[in-house]
Amino acid sequence: MALSLTVLGSSSATPTASRYPSSFLLRSNKQKDYFLIDCGEGTQILLRRVGIRMQQISRIFISHLHGDHFFGLIGFLFTQSLLGRKEELHIYAHKPLQKIIRMQLKMDKSKMTYPIFFHPINARKKKEMPLYENDKISVTTFPLLHSIPTNGFLFREKGHSRLVSKEFIAQYRPTVKQILGIKEGNDFRTQNGVLLSNKSITELSSDLKTFAYCSDTAYTETILPFIHGVNLLYHEATFMQDMLSVAEEKYHSTAMQAATIAKLAQVDKLLIGHYSARYKDISPLLQEAQDVFPNTLAAFEGATFQI
Amino acid sequence: MALSLTVLGSSSATPTASRYPSSFLLRSNKQKDYFLIDCGEGTQILLRRVGIRMQQISRIFISHLHGDHFFGLIGFLFTQSLLGRKEELHIYAHKPLQKIIRMQLKMDKSKMTYPIFFHPINARKKKEMPLYENDKISVTTFPLLHSIPTNGFLFREKGHSRLVSKEFIAQYRPTVKQILGIKEGNDFRTQNGVLLSNKSITELSSDLKTFAYCSDTAYTETILPFIHGVNLLYHEATFMQDMLSVAEEKYHSTAMQAATIAKLAQVDKLLIGHYSARYKDISPLLQEAQDVFPNTLAAFEGATFQI
Predict the structure, then answer these.
(1) In the predicted structure, residue A249 carries a pLDDT above the cut 70
(2) Could you tell me if B2 lies within 8 Å of chain A, comparing CB atoms?
(3) Is the terminal CB of chain A with fewer CB neighbours within 10 Å at N or C?
(4) Hey, is the C-beta of B111 within 8 angstroms of any chain A C-beta?
(5) What ipTM describes this predicted complex?
(6) With an 8 Å Cβ cutoff, is A243 touching chain B?
(7) Helix H segments across A89-156?
(8) How far is B12 from chain A (nearest CA, A)?
(9) Which residue has the higher pLDDT, A125 or B237?
């Protein structure tokens, strides 16, 4: 199993000539539908550029209602209709977005070719809350610390966490039906009538991946319990540490702070992004983060990271 | 004097990996403020890419309220505020846009750093109507034929349309004040008391440029009186002639139709754009138009055309 994250926008609020506002595509090889996380202006163009069939996107998660995180949504919605989309689209966002989108859809006389469902995020809850779940993945949300209500997202692969032992299969040649039963937790009775416990003939699967998304947020250790030990943490790094006071004032983080959170949360890998337009070259931000947390990567448009 | 037009978006409603929705920048070397014509998604990014200081844009003209012509506006407005813009911004558009923009501005708690003025376009008037005028340029609007109320724009350079004759100056050595008076239309009395008529000592200036913008529109000869003889006509060419029935159904034009309009209106140059995403290569559209009207150019992102 595998999750991958494609960066569509690595810029903070003011885009540059080469960096777009926040937008990310999460894909799992376990399911054919994709998730979009934030949807800054230009998202649909970037999706075309990386060769994604937009109809495959089934769910969109918007972290908060600053424009650089959702101004690409309305264009995405209309383009889907122009392309004749039939598939349901689910949007998870804070409530006022629904009003804005509905108003714009209503104003346009053309009828959408597909159904759109809004799922409001309750920003008042100061704990992890479920947003969506199927048998392959679960999505939850947790509060970040920003100038307006802002939520992070946690994506956890699900499924059969036990693999049937190869030695057992070689020795006892179970049927496919039996194997599926064992994956579901069944024990196995040999032809000699010996009962082999499920635990003794399976192995823990260690390839269920987790991804946490934190944008935008000031440095806050309150998020540590939610993101602890994830395989990949995306954490904004708008500024470098020499601009700490500006970062604090604007409820954003520095690269060093993002790395500190990654270290404290004991994550496998950190991905930084949401860079201020003032940084033409982002390698100093990456270096600053790596000095604290070596396993740090830097987001850039079009890049795909395996989780 | 000179006008120039920079293409920021040459795509029709569905953008491609390389073509953005409609957006154009009009500049005059007579004034330091610029005009934006339509503002599709991604406009602010394209403006950065062509190196334009966005604060120099003083007026935005939106032809109609299909999303591919204005979804970049809200991002542009917020970015201007993030950059600390102080200069007034004037928006000319059909009335419902004001409601959409106001609602989104209101929802965001941050206060805009600059004043925005809305100027509604009255789409019911079936004639040329003034929108804006200063001593260097005038802007008028006229109706196009589309599925929703849609307006074209006509930009006319103004100024002293008569140049004082060099021979007259050499012979009679008028003062600067006298020259300015003659430019304003005064006659000139020689030291011998002879009255030289204004006409006899001035020449018609032929460098006042005109630009007409027609997007989106079905083929309609009703626009000919408005665009007659302009130096540059931008006319949409969404399809080729083999898709005439689709073009008609969607109230769009073919390249051949755009060229026919240019020919009938006796314009100097035609610029086509608003290409359907189905055309990876737009040279066949250009060829189709040039077969009817040889002086045709094709819009592409980042290109600047001298008018």
Answers:
(1) yes
(2) no
(3) N
(4) no
(5) 0.83
(6) no
(7) 96-107
(8) 11
(9) B237
Q: In this structure, what are the phi and psi dihedrals at residue B229, rounded to the nearest 5 degrees?
A: 70, 15
Over the Cα atoms of chain B, what is R_g? 22
Which of A78, A103, A147 is opposite residue B103, by nearest beta carbon? A103
Write down the architecture of domain A3-159+208-306 according to CATH.
4-Layer Sandwich (3.60)
Sequence-distant (≥ 6) Cβ neighbours of residue A159 within 8 angstroms: A1, A30, A135, A136, A205, A208
Amino acid at A21: P
Specify the length of chain A in residues: 307
Is the Cβ pair A13, B82 closer than 8 Å?
yes
Whether chain B has a CB inside 8 Å of the CB on A15: the answer is yes
Mean pLDDT of chain A: 93
Mutation target to probe the B interface, by most B beta carbons within 10 A, among A77, A79, A95 is A79
Using CA atoms, how far apart are residues A251 and A28, in angstroms rounded to an integer?
Answer: 32
HSE (CB half, 13 Å, CA atoms) of B149?
16
Q: Which of A45, A82, A109 sits opposite B42 (nearest CB)?
A: A45
Positive or negative: CA dihedral B221, B225, B230, B235: negative
Q: In this predicted structure, what is the pLDDT of residue B296?
A: 98
Is pLDDT above 90 for A92? Answer: yes
Say whether residue B273 is in contact with chain A using an 8 A CB cutoff. Answer: no
Give yes or no for a contact between B196 and B187, defined as CB atoms under 8 angstroms apart. yes
Overall average pLDDT of the B2-27 stretch? 95
Quickly state the pLDDT bin for A161 (edges 50, 70, 90).
Answer: low
Mean pLDDT of A210-238: 97
What does residue B181 show for φ and ψ, rounded to 5 degrees? Answer: -60, -45
Active-site residue set of B: 68
Query: What end-to-end distance do the CA atoms of chain B give, in Å?
Result: 10
In the sheet that A137-143 helps form, which strands lie side by side, from edge to edge?
A129-133, A137-143, A151-157, A210-214, A232-236, A269-273, A296-298
- Domain residue spans of chain A: 3-159+208-306, 162-203
Active site residues of A: 68
Q: Output phi, psi for B59, to 5 deg.
A: -140, 140
